[in-house]
Design brief:
Methyltransferase, Cobalt-precorrin-4 Transmethylase, Domain 2, five-stranded parallel sheet, 42% helix, binds S-adenosylmethionine, elongated, 11 helices, 284 residues, five-stranded mixed sheet
């Protein structure tokens, strides 16, 4: 067991986890700016990107590179500095360090070494998207980036489909259409989703609608910029079965010598889904 009193021991350094803007520079907090200026070092995921940010907000400090490819080797060096009394402010390219960004290993090492870890509140894309999504924020589940493989995504969406919580994930623009298509193959076409685009920036947009409507929208409008995808909670735990589950039900009836046509009709009726849509999914 361990109790961390964040501001008691001055002899040992502190690790500050400092969120930076996800687009709009005005979103840097006064405290974040002060800590970035006062720390002995700023550990940054990309020293060039962060150097530009620090320059823009008028902060000049020593930078150390700390990213996902060097974090294991770098962490002991940073721990040594912290133990010698140096304060380190850790930042990522944008938003909260640790959230789909490096930082976790260093936090773990600090905890192991009794070095205080001081988190600063601030911008993060998923929380920013969630509060404007219109979906209930309690409970929600944040998944970060999903697997890029369609087969793995579909297995994941099967589980997510049943979740009584708002689901949130990040997706790159060039993969968004494919991922939404995979989502559409599992979720009922009427399930509500939101794609939050370019948050806090000039082209900020919220594309809200059913899975089908949003897929159609992106067929007409190529996805550009950064995206957070949110899926509404499954409020009807009993009734909403995924397409593969409905197809399985049809197969079970067919195995009992019921014609495909009648089986599709029966399953569609019992589950309140469109007969034509189930027919299409069944024959895909
Ligand atoms: N640490 C960041 C945070 O706290 O949100 C996330 C970093 S992750 C490497 C980058 C992803 O976050 C992007 O690919 C995008 O999915 C999402 N993201 C970051 N900024 C965004 C923005 N302004 N609008 C929408 N999504 C954003």
């Amino acid at each position: 067991m361990q109790v961390q009193s964040s501001f008691k021991d001055d002899k040992i350094g502190h690790l500050y986890l400092v969120p930076t803007p996800i687009g709009n520079l005005e979103d840097i907090t006064l405290r974040a700016k002060r800590i970035l200026a006062e720390a002995d070092y700023v550990a940054a995921e990309d020293t060039r990107t962060s150097g530009i940010l620090l320059e823009k907000i008028g902060v000049h400090n020593h930078m150390l590179s700390f990213h996902k490819y060097n974090s294991k080797e770098r962490a002991p060096e940073l721990i040594k500095l912290l133990k010698s009394g140096k304060n380190i402010a850790e930042i990522s390219d944008a938003g909260m360090p640790v959230i789909s960004d490096p930082g976790y290993i260093l936090v773990q090492e600090c905890i192991k070494n009794d070095i205080p870890v001081i988190p600063l509140p601030g911008p993060s894309a998923f929380a920013t998207a969630l509060i404007a999504s219109g979906f209930d924020a309690q409970p929600f589940t944040y998944y970060g980036f999903l697997s890029r493989k369609s087969s793995e995504q579909k297995v994941f969406f099967e589980k997510m489909n049943k979740a009584p919580a708002t689901s949130i994930f990040y997706e790159a623009p060039h993969r968004l259409k494919k991922t939404l298509k995979n989502l559409g193959e599992v979720l009922s076409p009427e399930r509500q989703i939101v794609c939050a685009r370019e948050l806090t920036k000039i082209h900020e947009e919220f594309i809200r609608g059913s899975v089908k409507e949003v897929i159609d929208y992106f067929d007409q409008n190529d996805p550009r910029g950064e995206f957070v995808v949110l899926v509404s909670p499954n409020e009807d735990q009993e009734e909403t079965l995924s397409w593969p589950e409905l197809i399985k039900q049809v197969d079970e009836l067919v195995a009992q010598d019921i014609s495909k046509k009648d089986a599709i009709k029966q399953v569609a009726k019992e589950n309140k889904v469109s007969k034509n849509e189930l027919y299409d999914k069944y024959h895909q």
